[in-house]
Design brief:
Layout lengths: L2 H24 L1 E5 L2 E4 H18 L7 H27 L6 H16 L10 H15 L3 H21 L9 H15 L11 H18 L2 E10 L6 H18 L6 H8 L3 H4 L4 E6 L6 H9 L9 E2 L3 E11 L6 H30 L3 E3 L6
Antiparallel strand pairs: 1-2, 1-7, 3-4, 3-6, 5-6
Length: 369
């Protein structure tokens, strides 16, 4: 090969290498101590979080500012995971194959043992479901296994360096938190003033959970025939007739409420779950006529069409629980665990910040997420 040919070959190699590096840079959303976080992995995590918000807080998806914050938090979590993974390697944390096997089995049981309809799957069906999910994500079984190993390494290092720093709450702290919960449930949220936004929200969430388990409540299902706002009498009459026709179907001896809800309910979100509305605390729906009918309904029976501002409901109640007293002795263990979890979260964040200070981090998150 001539000198000029060698030079051309070297230039071409450098050019191709430069293009490859450029492509790698374009495909990363962050670099942590020289290790890239790939855009494809980021997008998968973001899609999972966004799917959760579709069911829990759909209004957030219409807020550009909130969406930007969600995208940033997803990347922050991936950066923290990478830092803890690197710390685990530095500390030479070992995860044995049998532990990985147990971790994979835990994922199988938790996420694949039952199908969306609640049917228990066989081991063979679980394997098929898992394989289908891995194919959808574009990862091989060995890559999945390595992902589980890394997650277990992160968990192990957190247990070793974070958990020992967390102190159990004192009885006085538990009592103070209990008193705050009582005030919040009564409608006085001034007791969270002075707390950080995160701690205040956590305390409000705790009060909501306590209210859920101590107030009079039911587990309800419904089929909705929707009526648009300001509908005419003719439109309302048509909707009522449709609801009455569905009620006739439900009155048949072999009727399956869940299947009919999936096919007929205009509430698509609950309809996908067979009409399941979940636990309902008395006085929280903003639909007094709906609640009056639902709380008076005998277990297992289906109501006549009940009108609300949404339309006509056919309601079925599967569980009822009477109101319980808000006693300290009954709640102190749960509140103590809540405070312990809060302490753990703070120590975890503090440790992550310490790791960030010692790290070289380059964020490359595109504006569109």
């Amino acid at each position: 090969m001539s000198n000029s040919s060698r030079i051309l070959a070297a230039v071409a190699a450098l050019f191709l290498a430069g293009r490859a590096r450029a492509a790698l840079v374009e495909d990363t959303v962050a670099v942590v101590n020289g290790e890239p976080i790939m855009k494809t992995e980021y997008q998968k995590n973001l899609d999972t979080v966004m799917d959760q918000y579709k069911h829990t807080a759909p209004q957030l998806l219409a807020d550009p500012k909130a969406l930007t914050e969600v995208r940033s938090k997803v990347l922050d979590q991936m950066i923290d995971d990478k830092l803890f993974e690197q710390e685990a390697l530095r500390l030479k944390v070992k995860i044995h194959d049998r532990e990985v096997d147990a971790g994979i089995n835990e994922v199988r049981e938790r996420n694949f043992r039952r199908d969306p309809e609640g049917r228990t799957l066989t081991d063979e069906e679980i394997e098929k479901s898992l394989a289908s999910e891995l194919k959808k994500e574009g990862i091989s079984p060995s890559q999945f296994r390595e992902r589980i190993r890394k997650q277990m390494m992160i968990r192990r290092v957190i247990e070793e360096i974070v958990k020992p720093k967390v102190k159990a709450p004192e009885p006085a702290e538990i009592r103070k938190a209990f008193e705050k919960v009582k005030y919040i449930i009564k409608g006085d949220s001034s007791v969270v003033q002075g707390l950080s936004d995160r701690d205040a929200q956590a305390m409000m969430n705790l009060a909501d959970r306590v209210k859920l388990v101590t107030s009079e409540r039911i587990h309800a299902f419904h089929i909705l025939v929707k009526v648009v706002p300001n509908a005419s009498m003719v439109e309302k009459s048509k909707a009522l007739v449709k609801a009455q026709e569905i009620k006739k179907q439900l009155d048949a001896p072999d009727a399956d409420f869940s299947e009919i809800a999936k096919k007929s309910s205009d509430d698509k979100e609950s309809g996908e779950r067979g009409g399941d509305l979940g636990p309902i605390v008395k006085g929280t729906t903003g639909m007094p006529d709906f609640e009056k009918a639902a709380f008076a309904l005998p277990l297992g029976e289906v109501s006549e069409p009940v009108e609300s501002n949404l339309g006509y409901h056919l309601i079925r109640v599967t569980e009822k629980k009477a109101a319980e007293s808000l006693g300290y002795e009954k709640l102190k263990d749960d509140i103590g665990q809540f405070l312990l979890n809060m302490g753990f979260e703070k120590e975890l964040e503090k440790t992550a910040q310490e790791l960030r200070k010692r790290a070289q981090i380059e964020r490359k998150l595109p504006k569109e997420g």
